[in-house]
Amino acid sequence: MTETPLGLSQTPAHARALPPLRVAVAGLGAVGLKIVEALDEGLDGCVLTAVSARDKAAAADRLSALTHPVPVVDIAELEPLADLVVECAPAALLPAIVEPFLRAGKTAVVLSSGALLANDGLVATARAHGGQIVVPTGALLGLDAVTAAAEGEIRAVRMVTRKPVRGLVGAPYLVENNIAIEDIISPLRIFHGTPREAAVGFPANLNVAVALSLAGIGPDRTTLEIWADPALERNTHRIEVEADSATFTMAIENIPTDNPKTGRITALSVLAYLRKLRAPLRVGS
Ligand SMILES: NC(=O)C1=CN([C@@H]2O[C@H](COP(=O)(O)OP(=O)(O)OC[C@H]3O[C@@H](n4cnc5c(N)ncnc54)[C@H](OP(=O)(O)O)[C@@H]3O)[C@@H](O)[C@H]2O)C=CC1
Ligand SMILES: O=C([O-])CC(=O)C(=O)O
C-alpha cells in the first residue's frame, strides 16, 4: 500500500483492541484471489477466515502460498465462519452467497452488482434482519459524488463504456442479436439503453453501470452506451452527471487483469473499503 500523509497504513490502537472482522471470500478469480492474497499479507482490522471456490482442489493449489491457510468450503458453509462476505463469483450465484449473511444480520460486499436487479428481494431481507449489502465503487469512480448529488436532485446520468473486443465477446446480448464483433476494424456501438437492460444482456460486463444507477437515479433513468473498440487495451467508462448541486464528468481507463472483462482496480476498491471499516480517519464515503 502507498504510505499516506497521515500514516493510515499503520495499525491504529483501537483496531488492535477490537477483535478483527472475519472476512470470507466467495469466488477465487481475478477479483477474489487478489483480495485473498492481500488479506493474507495483512489488512488492518480484518482477518481472512474462509473462501469458497467451484473446484476445491484447484483452489487449494492456488492458495498454497498463503502464510495463513484458510478452509475452502461450499458457499452454504461460509456464513458461520465470517462476519462479512465478499461476493466475487459468477452473477448467478449472488443470492446463494449473500442471503445467508443478510439473514444473520451480517454484511455482504457485492461485486456482481448487476444481479441485484433480478434479486431485489435481498434488500428487503437485509432490512428485515439488520444486514447490509455493500456495492463498492469497484471498477468505477466517483460514486461518493453521485450519492451526494442524489441527496439533492439529479436530472440526468449518462454513461458511455468502451471495451476491447475480447472483453465483450460472448455476451448474451451479442449472441441473441447476432452481433459479430470479432473482426471489426473500427469502433462499433453495440448497445444503447439502460443499466437494467444491460444487466441482462451483458451480465459479466456492466456491473459498473448498475452500481452507478443505484447510486444515482436508478436503472431505468440512467442511459448507457456500450462500444466495442478494436484499438483499445483498457475498459474505459465516461460518466456525465447533471444535478441541481453540480455538473460533473468522470472518466476511468481500467487496466485489465488476467480476466479481460475485469479491471485491476476492482479488487483494490474492496480492499480500500475493508481498510476503512476500522480506520481512525475515513476519507470518502
Ligand atoms: N462491480 C464491479 O465493478 C465489477 C464486478 N465484476 C464482477 O465480479 C464478479 C467476479 O469477477 P472476476 O473475479 O473477474 O470473475 P472470474 O470469472 O475471474 O472469477 C469468478 C470465480 O468464481 C468461481 N466460481 C464459479 N462457481 C463457483 C461456485 N459454485 N462457488 C464458488 N466459486 C465459484 C470461478 O471458479 P472457476 O474459475 O473454477 O470457474 C472463478 O474463480 C463477476 O460477476 C464480475 O462480473 C467484475 C469487475 C468489476
Ligand atoms: O463492469 C464491470 O463489471 C467491469 C468493468 O467494466 C471494468 O473492469 O472496467
UniProtKB/TrEMBL annotation:
Per its record, the protein catalyses: L-aspartate + NADP(+) + H2O = oxaloacetate + NH4(+) + NADPH + H(+); L-aspartate + NAD(+) + H2O = oxaloacetate + NH4(+) + NADH + H(+)
Annotated source species: Azospirillum endophyticum
Q: Does the keyword NAD apply?
A: yes
- List the protein's name: L-aspartate dehydrogenase
Query: Aspartate/homoserine dehydrogenase NAD-binding domain spans which residues?
Result: 27-136
Binding annotation for NAD(+): A139, N207
Matching Pfam families: Asp_DH_C (PF01958), NAD_binding_3 (PF03447)
Could you tell me the superkingdom of the organism this chain comes from? Bacteria
Would you identify the family this protein belongs to, as annotated?
Belongs to the L-aspartate dehydrogenase family.
Q: Enzyme group, top EC level?
A: oxidoreductase
**What is this organism's lineage?**
Bacteria, Pseudomonadati, Pseudomonadota, Alphaproteobacteria, Rhodospirillales
What is the gene called?
Answer: nadX
EC number in record: 1.4.1.21
